[in-house]
Structure formats: C-alpha cells, structure tokens
C-alpha cells in the first residue's frame, strides 16, 4: 500500500534532512542536500509517494544512485549486487508501476555502478565502475521497453 511522507529541509542547519520516519539521517555534516525552503514551501510542505518497497533482494537491494530514463523509468545503481542472489552488481530499472528489471550487470568484477546519467539526447547511458580499474562506460541505445 503506497504511503505518503512529508519531507522538509532543515534550513541553515548545515545538513540535509535530519530525520526520516523518526530516525536520524546519515548525511555527512556540513553538506547541503536541499535548498532552504521558501515561505510558501514551509506553509505547504511537499510529499514523496512510496511506489516501490521491494523485500526481495533479487529484485533490487541497496541502491544509492538513480537517474530518470528518457522513457520514464528509474535506473538505479545497486550497491549490494542483489544480496548475493545475483552474480555481480547491477543497474536496475523500475517502471512507473513499480516493476523491477535488470538493466545491466557487471559480472566482470565485484565493483558497483555509480553516477548513472543519460546524454542530453537520451541515446547513451553513462555509468561509472568504481574499482579495478575505475572507468566510465557509455552504453548505447536504442532502448526498448
């Protein structure tokens, strides 16, 4: 069941969101993750809708980077490689309906993907491999659903 949660920045605090669902955040001190709110935003805070909450690590696990694909899906950089269920780290796609699919797999080594982003024309997805040796991949379309 989708749930809505209010999300608001802590203005002039030196940090981004301090608490999420009653738990302290783990953002690094002295970094700014959100711009200070305007008076209108403070009066009517925005909300986020949870549309996916996978409890199966083979679907998606420990994602820490994301980008929006030209066709509207999210592309997530996975940090845990499917909980050991999948042999390698992945880029995972998520449809607007919340369905997860494997978009790309790094089966070459145990390094994770990071920093995925599409070229302005949407034809190329760039993603970094962090370790051994670090490199940036250019993955070309055409993309099909």
- Residues in helices, as a percent range: under 10%
Radius of gyration: 17 Å
Query: Into how many domains do the coordinates divide?
Result: 2
Distance from N terminus to C terminus (CA atoms, Å) equals 26 Å
Biggest sheet layout: 4 strands, antiparallel
Our estimate of the beta-strand percent is 35-45%
Which strands sit side by side, in order, in the main sheet? 5-6-7-8
Key phrases:
1 helix; 4-stranded antiparallel beta sheet; mainly beta; single chain; 145 residues; 2 domains
Outline of the structure:
This protein is mainly beta. It has one helix at residues 39-43, and strands at residues 4-6, 19-20, 23-24, 47-49, 63-68, 74-78, 89-94, 100-106, 113-118, 124-129, 135-140.
Describe the protein.
The chain is mostly beta strands and 145 residues long. The chain folds into 2 domains: 1-50, no CATH class; 63-140. Helices cover 3% and strands 36% of the residues. The chain contains 1 helix and 11 strands; from the N terminus they run βββαββββββββ. It has one helix at 39-43; strands spanning 4-6, 19-20, 23-24, 47-49, 63-68, 74-78, 89-94, 100-106, 113-118, 124-129, 135-140. A hairpin with a 5-residue loop joins strand 10 and strand 11 (135-140). Residues 1-33 have low confidence and may be disordered.
Describe how the helices and strands are arranged:
Elements: E1 4-6, E2 19-20, E3 23-24, H1 39-43, E4 47-49, E5 63-68, E6 74-78, E7 89-94, E8 100-106, E9 113-118, E10 124-129, E11 135-140
Antiparallel strand pairs: 1-4, 2-3, 5-6, 6-7, 7-8, 9-10, 10-11
